[in-house]
Design goal:
mainly alpha; globular
């Protein structure tokens, strides 16, 4: 049996890559919470973090796991579409989530991640607090952020329900737990532009 082509192995590695990003999302929203403690606290933290020894290795791991996660998802879906005995192997999406919406949401999330990364790299280290405040006073940028969070929330819910189901938690339980976690994370992210708008 080819290790790389083993469906079970692929799913586990794909889930592991997703888990790394889930941990990062939690860490990211917690680090962003320093925004609520004022300019000095936020700038001090991010100037330290951006110059720390873990910054570039972390970016490498995130880029590698994202590339693997996307590549595996796409190749597995394409493989399902052309597999012999499609009725056995083909994944059927729930009627409330058409395939087009599921894949366009994932594509939107990837585009947002790339856009957000480039945007943050262009910020000056002198005053990131003020620059982020300036970004969220622009209606277009605020809309981009909101759509990015919607895409993130949908993908997190999808991933979390699959993981919790694998752990044997009942359908109603894993759905409610996943919704709670996603809403908690989205609340943390959206609190930044809200605090800027109502400052």
């Amino acid at each position: 049996m080819n290790f790389i082509n083993n469906t079970i192995v692929q799913k586990k590695l794909m889930a592991f890559a997703g888990l790394i990003w889930f941990v990062y999302v939690i860490a990211h929203v917690l680090s962003l919470s320093s925004f609520h403690f004022g300019k000095q606290a936020f700038n001090d933290f991010y100037n330290w973090f951006n110059g720390s020894i873990i910054y570039w290795p972390m970016l490498f791991v995130l880029a590698a796991t994202l590339a693997f996660h996307v590549f595996t998802a796409v190749t597995r879906q394409l493989g399902n579409n052309v597999a012999i005995g499609a009725n056995r192997y083909h994944h059927i999406y729930p009627k409330i989530i058409p395939r087009f919406i599921a894949w366009s949401g994932a594509a939107m999330l990837i585009a947002f991640i790339v856009f957000h990364f480039v945007q943050m790299q262009l910020l000056s280290d002198l005053d990131p607090y003020q620059q982020i405040s300036n970004i969220f006073t622009q209606p277009v940028m605020l809309l981009v952020y909101i759509f990015g969070l919607i895409a993130l929330g949908m993908h997190l819910h999808h991933g979390l329900t699959n993981v919790l189901q694998t752990l044997g938690i009942s359908s109603n339980q894993y759905n409610l737990i996943a919704i709670f976690i996603v809403l908690l994370l989205l609340f943390g992210f959206i609190s930044i532009p809200v605090s800027v708008i109502y400052a």
